[in-house]
């Protein structure tokens, strides 16, 4: 049984981001399979964490190039997720407590679709509106400071 199924609702029609998201789902499922199989799940978790760090850094680079404020709610959510992931790893390594890893598996599976469908979709929309090309890193027309205040979505209050 997989931890999270890849579905069409996760497709954002941005090839680089869609590929990255598929990889995230695959790594989360590999981590879940290791937990379910009773094998050492730490190698799979390390791969998931490393991928997530690179994934979020890529998105945050795109945000910066499009004119988002450094402290926006999308990047803030990334920071919270990474802090929890790193803390779970610390518990596993320093305290030999693997329970936070199992809890985090479930939490990530619930969090990721919502994040992708709302925050990442808003990022992709903003990138399209300002003519940002992820391949070149060029943004035709960066968003204004007022629009960049939140997550790039007009519905963001942050």
Please give a structural write-up.
The chain starts with 14 loop residues before the first helix and ends in a 10-residue tail after the last helix. It has a single domain, classed as Four Helix Bundle (Hemerythrin (Met), subunit A) (Up-down Bundle). It has about 160 residues and is an all-alpha fold. It is elongated, with a radius of gyration of 17 Å. It has a two-stranded antiparallel ribbon. It has 5 helices and 2 strands. Helix 1 runs antiparallel to helix 2 and helix 2 runs antiparallel to helix 3. The longest helix is centred in the C-terminal third of the chain and has 32 residues. The mean pLDDT is about 90.
Task: Report a brief summary of the structure.
By secondary structure, this protein is an all-alpha fold. The protein contains five helices and two strands.
Secondary-structure map with pairings?
Elements: H1 15-37, H2 42-66, H3 73-94, H4 99-130, E1 132-133, E2 138-139, H5 145-148
Antiparallel strand pairs: 1-2
Spell out the key features of this protein.
single chain, 158 residues, mainly alpha, Four Helix Bundle (Hemerythrin (Met), subunit A), two-stranded antiparallel sheet, 5 helices, 2 strands
Task: Note the main sheet.
Answer: 2 strands, antiparallel
CATH architecture grouping:
Up-down Bundle
Distance between the termini: 37 Å
- Counted by DSSP, the helix tally is 5
Instruction: Write down the secondary-structure element order.
Output: HHHHEEH
Text of the CATH class:
Mainly Alpha
Low-confidence stretches: none
Biggest sheet: strand arrangement: 1-2
Structural class: mainly alpha
Helix content: 55-70%
What is the count of structural domains? 1
CATH fold call: Four Helix Bundle (Hemerythrin (Met), subunit A)
What fraction of residues sit in β-strands?
under 5%
Estimated radius of gyration: 17 Å
Mean pLDDT: 90
* Record field, number of beta strands: 2
InterPro entries: Haemerythrin_Fe_BS, Hemerythrin-like, Hemerythrin-like_sf, Hemerythrin_metal-bd
GO molecular function: metal ion binding
Domain Hemerythrin-like: 16-122
Keywords: Iron, Metal-binding
């Amino acid at each position: 049984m997989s931890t999270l199924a890849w579905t069409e609702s996760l497709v954002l029609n941005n090839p680089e981001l869609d590929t990255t998201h598929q990889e995230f789902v695959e790594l989360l499922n590999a981590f879940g399979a290791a937990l379910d199989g009773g094998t050492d799940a730490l190698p799979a978790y390390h791969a998931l964490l490393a991928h997530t760090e690179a994934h979020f850094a890529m998105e945050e680079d795109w945000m910066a190039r499009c004119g988002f404020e450094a402290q926006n709610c999308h990047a803030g959510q990334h920071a919270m997720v990474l802090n929890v992931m790193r803390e779970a790893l610390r518990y596993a390594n320093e305290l030999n407590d693997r329970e936070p890893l199992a809890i985090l598996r479930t939490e990530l599976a619930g969090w990721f679709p919502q994040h992708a469908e709302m925050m990442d979709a808003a990022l992709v929309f903003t990138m399209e509106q300002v003519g940002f090309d992820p391949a070149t890193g060029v943004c035709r027309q960066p968003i204004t400071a007022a629009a960049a205040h939140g997550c790039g979505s007009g519905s963001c209050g942050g």
